[in-house]
Amino acid sequence: MFSPELKKGSMELLILSMLDQESRHGYEIGKLIEIRSGSRIEFRISTLYSVLYRMEKNGWIKGRWVEKEGQRRRCYYRLTAAGKRVLSLQKREWQEFAGVINELIGTSHA
Amino acid sequence: MFSPELKKGSMELLILSMLDQESRHGYEIGKLIEIRSGSRIEFRISTLYSVLYRMEKNGWIKGRWVEKEGQRRRCYYRLTAAGKRVLSLQKREWQEFAGVINELIGTSHA
DNA sequence: CATAGATATTTCATGACGCGAAATATCACG
DNA sequence: CGTGATATTTCGCGTCATGAAATATCTATG
């Protein structure tokens, strides 16, 4: 598990990425990140929802309540147009940032 | 310039890296990071010093005051043994973390 | 049926941290 | 003398991940 500080900068990016192709509900996003990262990245569930709320407030994602018969109620989020822009922006930012850090700490000069 | 959140996770790592080979004072560290990153990473000077204090409190670095004739007083920091361990640890953590993020956001499958 | 555990969401207080602004002081240059 | 770079300190602010607790439904086990 990584330090909270490391995770802070990539939380939104990760969540946006999970919503890139299809809409998902909060709990699902958390599990997906956990599974796909081989448990190397885990979000506290409270953190996840708070980020989700923030991103919806920012207009990056839009939630839709679904209450199927014999199912718990779930809020499915999808990317908005703005969210897609932010995703691509944050992706580029992350890659550039990672590149700079690697240069500075003397890693990628192999 | 990157988001503060992205930077949070790498601030200590960057500073430790700058001190890896030789001792430096705060202002110098800031300038060095700015120059080496091509101004892509800039720390607020207040941030820099607060991180420095924290790291000294943690025993990762040790400051030494130097007051030369015809020079402003400066506090030169060097890595402690613990600091060196933390540096190597944080370096490994960073690389692993970056790898996981790249996997998750679908970047490195090129 | 009772119980436990996974699923699913909400709320709130807390602490850590980067940031911005302001203050202080020395030195170099014109 | 004034300006700008060097060099450090202090403090309040806002943001953000965290942790704990509460609520509720579904599934599996005994």
Please explain how this structure is put together.
The structure is a homodimer of 110-residue chains. The first copy, chain A, is α+β, with helices and mostly antiparallel strands and 110 residues long. Chain A has one domain: Arc Repressor Mutant, subunit A, CATH 1.10.10.10. In chain A, 55% of the residues lie in helices and 13% in strands. Chain A has five helices and three strands; from the N terminus they run ααβααββα. The first copy, chain A, has helices at 4-8, 11-18, 26-36, 45-57, 81-104; strands at residues 24-25, 61-66, 74-79. Chain A has a three-stranded antiparallel beta sheet. In chain A, β2 and β3 (74-79) form a beta hairpin. In chain A, α2 crosses α5 (81-104) and α3 crosses α4 (45-57). The A-B interface holds A 2-3, 5-11, 13-14, 17, 20, 33, 36-38, 40-41, 91, 93-98, 100-107 and B 2-3, 5-11, 13-14, 17, 20, 33, 36-37, 40-41, 91, 93-98, 100-107.
- Classified by CATH, the class of chain A is Mainly Alpha
Shape of chain A: globular
Strand order of the largest sheet of chain A: 1-3-2
What is the CATH fold-level name of chain A?
Arc Repressor Mutant, subunit A
Order of helices and strands of chain A: HHEHHEEH
Question: What kind of sheet is the major sheet of chain A?
Answer: 3 strands, antiparallel
Helix amount of chain A, in percent?
Answer: 55-70%
Number of helices of chain A: 5
Terminal-residue CA separation of chain A = 26 Å
Q: What multimeric state do the chains show?
A: homodimer
Task: State the secondary-structure class of chain A.
Answer: alpha+beta
